[in-house]
Structures are given as C-alpha cells and as structure tokens.
Amino acid sequence: MSQEDTPAHTCLAASQAELLSDQPALASPGYVDCLRHCLRGRGDDYPKPYIMGICGETFRFLYDQTDPERGLSVVAHNPLRAGASALGYDSEIYCQPELEPALDLLWEQLQGGPAIMHLGEQWAVVARAPEGRPAFTVAVPGQQSADWERPALAAAWQREPGLLELGLPGYYFFQLGEKQREPDYRDASLGSLRRGIRLMMRQAKVNGCAAGLAAYEDLQRAFRRPRRDPRQWRMELDKFLRWRALPVAYAVGSRQAASRYLALVEEHFEEETRQHLRKAASKYERVAGMLARLPELPAELVPPLDRASNEPFTPEERRAMRAFSGIRRRAARCFKKAHRLEQEALDDLRRVLDSVERQKKP
Fold first, then answer.
1. HSE of 338 in the Cβ direction (CA atoms, 13 Å)?
2. 268: which residues sit within 8 A by CB, 6+ positions away?
3. Are strands 122-128 and 136-139 parallel, antiparallel or unpaired?
4. Sign of CA dihedral 148, 151, 155, 158
C-alpha cells in the first residue's frame, strides 16, 4: 500500500513512531482510555497523547481551593463528544431516569457496539458477553475484562446528573455511532488548540473551579503562607496531601501529553508554524517536570489529621509544621514559574493560529 492509500491516522502514527508508546504511562481520566479502546475496535488506533489532545484533556487544568480533588471530575466541554466529532464519528449519550428501563435500553443498544459508562468510581467499556449469554463484558482501563450479570451491573451503575455534561438525573451511557467522514487532521488540531487557549485563559469559574492560568494563581495564593491556627493548619495540610496525590499526577500527565500531542500534529503544518508548536511543546514538557518534582512531606512527618481542632500542637505536629512551611514556599515558587511557562506556551499557540491565518491570505 502506498502512503497515498494509507489511512491518514496510520500515516500520523507511522511518522511519529517513537510517540506511540505510552511509556511512561500518562495519567488521565478513565474515559480517555475507554474512548481509545472503542476507536481501536473500529480500526482507528491513535496514540494516547493524540486522543487526549483531540478531547481537550491536554489543556485541562482546574483547581478548587475548598476541595483539591474536585477539579478531576469537572470539565468545560464534553470530551467524549469532542473527540468523536473531531475524528469523524457520530455519537450519542443515552439516558433513562429509572434503572430497569436503562438496563433494557443499554442491552438493546449494545447490539450496535460497546458503550462507555461511569460505574461507581470507575469508567468502563461495556459490551454484550460472547456466545449469546445474557451477561455484560465490562472492561475497566488497566484491569482484566470480566463478565457481569445484570444484577452486578445494576448495583454499580449509579444515578447521576449527566455524563460529562449537565443533564437531568438518570442512568447514562455514551456510544460511538457510524463514521461519517475521514477526519481533517489539520482542522481538528486547530480546533483543539482554540479550545485549549479559551480554557486556559478563562476568567469565569467552571462549576466552582478556577481554570487554566487562574487556577495557577489560586494555587500560588493557597500555598504562599502557612497557617498558624491549629484547625486551619491541619485543614491546609490535609488539602495539600490530597492534591499532591492524584490531581498532581493528572496535571503531569496532561502536560506530558500536551508536549507529545503538539509533536504529533506537526506534520499537518508548514515549517513556520512548526517552530511555534515546538516551542510550546518544550514549555509543556518543562511544566510537567516541575510539577512532577513538587516537594512532598515525608511520610514519617505526616501527623494524624483527625484530632480536635481546638487541641494544641503536639511536638510531632510542630516538626511537620516547620517542614510544611518550607514545602509551601517551594510549591508557591513552582506554581509561579509554571504560570509563566504556561502563559508563554499560550503565546506560542496563538502564534500558530496567526501563522495559519496569514498563510490563507493570497
């Protein structure tokens, strides 16, 4: 098969073979891996950084000062719809307000292919079990697939107000439809960059979370100075420990993916534009490294955080407090540098768009 006859996504992957690997693994919400799984089933095997970029995950950075883990579940647009549309697919989100009719609808729709669902705390791809058995095959990213009977699926499927978008309370699932067209990879890349710039520059909060550059500013304020009041200090330490775990891993993964995504889409642009993409990619890689090296409080210094708020500090808490004060200052400096790099990367991406517009002019 000549390159002219090769599907566009295969050329994209082949020309950037070193970027196909997911090593080191990119931390991301489970729905990204679920969408990639469904696309592979249709014969479209894209690198994970590309899926993250086209869905908008590479530019998602949200922070809520009152709940540091909340940003993980908040989105500014539906990433499954965005990814499917950019890659030429129809898609549908189905909902039923009651569980039994929802299970019946799911079973019926699975004749046309697998569905993506939110089961408890996990995202999963659900299909009909093989050999005509009245059971479901459930695949959770990073785990072995397993067959579930209807009662097991019913117990895990929770009622929620929408699936990655606001909706009425009910039982939801997402399904890829038919592929209507071959994607225009250049236009899809430009669309993802425009969405990313808008989100990173957004001033209004997204469901209570600061977004993009504003999120970095909130982080700087939150970690700039330690609290002296015992209750506040224990609450702030608890929030730091929670944010330093999964939210930081996701932030590092998104910035690593941003760097790889921009390298993957280079081939769709002229050399003048590629220079700006490379500069932005380098900055995102630097941000990922900075966030990955954020200081941690040594495990042996982490005190119990469930003591009464009016109790005085213990000697162990005072040692932890001194260590945490230094960590906070270093973290605030890190967020300030990351904010500057993110701003510069956005300037590079705006230059990409300006360059493309100039090339359109006769």
1. 30
2. 185, 186, 189
3. antiparallel
4. positive
Q: H or E element: which one contains 92?
A: strand 89-96
Contact 210, 63 (CB under 8 A): yes
**pLDDT tens for residues 16-57?**
333 334 445 788 889 999 999 999 999 999 999 999 999 999
d(CA 323, CA 319): 6
Of 317, 325, 257, nearest to 291 by C-alpha is 257
CA 216 to chain centre: 17
Q: Any bridge partners for residue 125, and if so which?
A: 116, 139
Cis link prior to 134 (omega < 30° from 0)?
no
Q: What pTM was estimated for this model as a whole?
A: 0.88
Token duo for residue 285: 């890689």
Distances (CA, A) of 109 to 116, 171, 172, 173, 261: 12, 14, 12, 10, 33
DSSP structure string for 200-225: HT--S-BTTBEETHHHHHHHHHHHSS
Distance, CA of 136 to CA of 103 (rounded, Å) = 11
Nearest in space to 320 (alpha carbons), one of 206, 234, 259? 234
**Closest CA relative to residue 217, chosen from 332, 75, 346:** 332
Beta bridge partners of 157: 119
Contact present, 57 and 82 (Cβ < 8 Å): no
Cα gap 42→182, rounded to integer Å: 13
pLDDT in tens, 145-196: 999 999 999 999 999 999 999 899 999 999 999 999 999 999 999 999 999 9
Q: 164: how many CB neighbours lie within 10 A of its CB?
A: 21
Q: Which residues contact 41 (CB under 8 A, 6 or more apart)?
A: 113, 114
Angle between helices 315-360 and 230-244 (to 10 degrees): 50
Residues 26, 36: Cα–Cα separation, whole Å: 13
DSSP designation for 63: E
